Amino acid sequence: MKALQEYLATKFEMKDLGKLIYFLGIEVVRSKHGVFLSQQKYVLDLLTKTGMLGCKPAETPIEMNHKLEILPYQNPTDKGCYQQLVGRLICLSHTRPDIAYAVSVVSHFMHAPSEAHIEAVYQILRCLKSARGKSLLFSKNGISNIEGYTDSDWAGDPTTKRHTSGYFTLVEGNLVTWKSKKHKVVARSSAEAKFRGMAHGVCELIWIRNILRDLGIDYAKPMNLHCDNKVAIEIAQNLVQHDRITC
């Protein structure tokens, strides 16, 4: 590391600030348990600026089985305020995977937000009030594998009937990547929607393994991908009869 710092100093004007403590709103805390990444101060500032510091806490960032959509006669809300709030929540989701799906949903209505959409944003803020101190922990726990979990809905978007899939990946038991994405195609069954989600999860696992290999860390063990749909798993394991499924 010292040799790298000396080499970079010959190319750029730089100085060593010591151990990382705070970077782009992310707090870094080290302890005997590992390294914690949090944005607690960012959450407090966001709640204070929006006047939600004294709000009633919520247990979940979004209502279950929500039906958020763009309607022809909806009551509009302040577009600039909505975009600013959602933009701040996107920055917060870098260390808060628990709100990633909810933020992904509300970001779909940036061009035409309504009162129902801004209420969904306030729901996320109320959830942050109840768990503003959550953080990511990276530690040594004796696990030496890479695994991922995937899930997907079917025709979850009331307007387009497109589905949303999500995944998260663990390296040696530590959460490293997560994503929620609405697909561009309409799945014809829940099994197809789950299978497409698995395909994205596989791509992420392969990408992580290649990155670690470039860093000199090689995992010889097979990577595990978890899915809760039996039909989708059978499609993935069948090397012949999958001509009707394309990703």
Give a written overview of the molecule:
This protein has 247 residues and is an alpha+beta fold. The protein has helices at 2-11, 40-49, 79-92, 100-106, 115-130, 190-214, 230-237; strands at residues 22-23, 26-31, 34-38, 135-138, 146-152, 164-171, 174-182, 224-226. The strands form two sheets. Strands 1-2-3-4 form a four-stranded antiparallel beta sheet. A four-stranded mixed beta sheet has the order 7-6-5-8. A hairpin with a 2-residue loop joins strand 2 and strand 3. The longest helix is centred in the C-terminal third of the chain and has 25 residues, at 190-214.
Number of domains: 2
| Annotation, overall tally of beta strands | 8
First-last Cα distance: 42 Å
Instruction: Return Rg in Å.
Output: 21 Å
Helix content: 25-40%
The largest sheet is: 4 strands, antiparallel
Order of helices and strands: HEEEHHHHEEEEHEH
Shape: globular
Low-confidence stretches: none
Mean pLDDT: 84
Strand order of the largest sheet: 1-2-3-4
- Give the DSSP E fraction (strand runs of 2 or more residues): 15-25%
Structural class: alpha+beta
Number of helices: 7
Please supply descriptive tags for the structure shown above.
single chain; 247 residues; alpha+beta; Nucleotidyltransferase, domain 5; 2 domains; globular
